[in-house]
Amino acid sequence: MPAPAAGTGPSRAVVDDGDVAGLGKARAMAFLAPALLLISLFLVFPALWTLYLGLTNYRLSGSAAKNPQFVGVDNYINALSDDRFFNSLGLTLLFVFGSAVIGQSALGFAIAWTMTRVRKSVRAVVEFFVLLAWIIPSSVTTFLWYAMLDRSNGTLNAMLSTGNTAWLLDYPLQSIIVFNTWVGTAFSMLLFSSALASVPPSQLESARMVGAGAWAQFRDVVFPHIRGHVLTNTLLITLWTFNTFTPYLLTAGGPDDRSNILPIFIYRLALNDGALGQGSAISLIMIIINLVIATVYLRLLKERKS
Prior knowledge:
By secondary structure, the chain is mainly alpha-helical.
């Protein structure tokens, strides 16, 4: 039998393996390319464009619209020295804490926990109406809330016999907190329902047999199993609530800027006042705040898993 020629045998197999690996990477990149293109188009490019506009005096009209000038960090300095920005930031934090961290999380868990103890028919009806609040278009939802909070013929005044209380004028922040809680509770309910379904029934039964009450069962059995879901839910609804624009349809940031949360403040500054450069700078500040919030939650989630 003739000896194998140089460059054949085992070394040839290694080359083939390398070719296969390279081909596999090329195919993987081909599958990822559409997703990377979409991420670049809808996330990376808008973020870079926002960064650029925030460094200019760009406006929607006038000479600055045609020939914007580079102003560096002046927009950021102006934002951080503007009382309106800090008023809006404070209102946003109260809005997020009240409607997301407290309202949606607590109400969503309460509904999910209660539904584990009722018949399936009752659970189906309750979940249907909670989901209905989530899937109804924002314009329709706003109209319904106008009808309920109206000063003269509102449903809430009729139910509480409070006369002609102008809820949207006297309690604008509280109104949008309750409004956003009502709209967004369905997500928390669904997530917690899924989490509670994963709690082993045998552990709950063992806790009942040793005389543990409802609070002890939740603290020692339920919560350790759903802690990760609690963090995930809180992270998602915090970011969504921090960036939501829907309350604009109800109060438009008024009266007297008492419901002027950051998304509405940026909209009014950039589009109503035409200061698109300054609005972009505040948008980037919002992005940074979102990243800080996400980092904190993800670190807590990582510590929990470890």
